[in-house]
Design goal:
By secondary structure, this protein is an alpha+beta fold. It is about 45% helix and about 15% strand. A four-stranded mixed sheet has the order 1-4-5-8. The chain has a four-stranded antiparallel sheet with strand order 2-3-7-6, with no helix packed on it. The N and C termini lie far apart (about 60 Å). The chain binds flavin-adenine dinucleotide.
Length: about 400
């Protein structure tokens, strides 16, 4: 890993300046305030604005296909996060669009891809069901063949941004009698199809997600992605992308881990806490002069730095685990006013630590729970074998 500072060429410096100006124009205080209120992690004006400037296409494509160079991609990812861009819907859209480009028939890809890159078509993930999401292959939502189409019935939990998307990448069961990994078929279902009902749901951090019901939803076979009962092959590609399974390069320019945008929020909260405890209070004292405060703040910074340096799946776990550990510590250092959320009069740090505290719960659930990631690390990276959750063997009495 190369940690040296990158010297920007004039062109790259101009790109960074333009990008910052573009984000400052699009991601206004009003956009951020509205996003906080709606919890949608999406803003259509911002999304279309970035699409119109060709930035969605540049992010989607490899450099060889006209996309960002590695350096510009790094700048793009950092600036998007720094600007607090409502952004998660692009993550699901791009992830599914890569799968569509790889597995869908040409006609469907031609129907969807231009709109994805312009920002007019958004795609969401319909995997999780009311009975469970970690083991997605236990899917119960049924798709039954009906002439040249399929009839879909079932329910999905947590289909984030379904209400802002045009298609859902839907996991269905097409062979309930078959072994679970041979029973799945994927569809890209238009969300304006009759029989689909979207119900909003808010989480503890204010995120808006959805329950989506499918009642006799008729979908043409051309919306199928991949083989019938071959959905697991398609899902694996999408899940690998979601889990951050990616090849690392040694130039230090790669996004180090999934959810590094969350790490930026954590870093802001640490900075703001440091500013508050370093300021002189009305009594003329600074809280930072108390050794206990120095120790607790220093320990939080050290933990955060360790999380920021952890790559791939390790980073995914370390970032969220550290958010969970240090957010209460920061709030404690801030005192009672640290409990107040953003834009509340009297909030110690404008709610930064409080937000990280609430965000850290769901962040360790979506895209795979921390426990599941820890098991993946144990199994695939450390070679410890699969965990065994069976009850302890009965002792046989002599
Ligand atoms: C804000 C938010 C947005 C989301 N957005 C989407 C979305 O857009 N699309 C979508 O399809 N899903 C989405 N999800 C769902 C998310 O992917 C699931 O919540 C997650 O996969 C966990 O599934 P579950 O909630 O059903 O918990 P379960 O799978 O029922 O797990 C319950 C508990 O058991 C533990 N557990 C389960 N299996 C194992 C195991 N093998 N080893 C160790 N522990 C285990 C879990 O860690 C957890 O603590 C979202 C969730 C949230 C909170």
């Amino acid at each position: 890993m190369d940690f040296s500072r990158v010297t920007l060429s004039q062109d790259d410096q101009a790109f960074q300046d333009d990008l910052r100006a573009c984000l400052a124009e699009l991601v206004t205080d009003e956009v951020i305030r509205r996003d906080r209120e709606t919890g949608e992690n999406f803003d259509e004006t911002v999304h279309l604005g970035l699409g119109e400037r060709g930035l969605l296409a540049a992010d989607f494509n490899d450099e060889s296909a006209g996309g960002f160079s590695r350096l510009r991609r790094r700048m793009w990812e950092l600036e998007i996060g720094r600007a607090h861009t409502p952004w998660f819907h692009w993550g699901t859209t791009a992830m599914v669009a890569h799968v569509v480009a790889k597995f869908a028939d040409d006609q469907l890809a031609r129907e969807v891809m231009p709109g994805v890159l312009s920002g007019h078509i958004r795609l969401c993930l319909g995997y999780t069901e009311p009975d469970g999401g970690s083991d997605v292959a236990t899917c119960k939502t049924r798709a039954v063949r009906d002439g040249d189409g399929w009839i879909i019935n079932g329910a999905k939990m947590f289909t984030s941004n379904a209400h802002n998307a045009q298609f859902v990448f839907l996991l269905t069961n097409t062979a309930p009698e078959a072994p679970k990994h041979q029973s799945l078929t994927m569809f890209l279902v238009p969300l304006d199809t009759p029989g689909i009902e979207i119900q909003g749901l808010r989480t503890i951090d204010g995120d808006r997600t959805n329950i989506v019901y499918y009642s006799d939803v008729r979908v043409d076979d051309r919306y199928r992605i991949g083989e019938i009962n071959g959905g697991w092959t398609v899902m694996r590609v999408a899940l690998d992308a979601e889990h951050g399974v990616m090849e690392q390069d040694s130039d230090g320019l790669q996004k180090i881990a999934m959810m590094s945008e969350h790490a930026l929020l954590m870093a802001e909260a640490v900075d703001r806490t440091a500013a508050v405890v370093g300021a002189t209070g009305p009594d003329g004292a600074r809280r930072i002069d108390d050794e206990a405060v120095q120790y607790r703040l220093g320990r939080s910074v050290a933990r955060m730095e360790a999380a920021l340096s952890a790559p791939e799946m390790y980073g995914r776990v370390a970032i969220v685990a550290t958010m969970r550990e240090i957010a209460p510590e920061l709030m404690d250092l801030l005192g009672t006013a640290g409990l107040l959320p953003a834009e509340t009069p009297g909030a110690a740090d404008d709610g930064a630590a409080e937000h990280v505290f609430r965000l850290s719960g769901p962040s360790g659930i979506y895209g795979g729970t921390l426990e599941v990631f820890r098991n993946m690390i144990a199994t695939h990276a450390l070679g410890l074998g699969k965990p065994n959750y069976s009850p302890p063997a009965q002792r046989v009495k002599a």
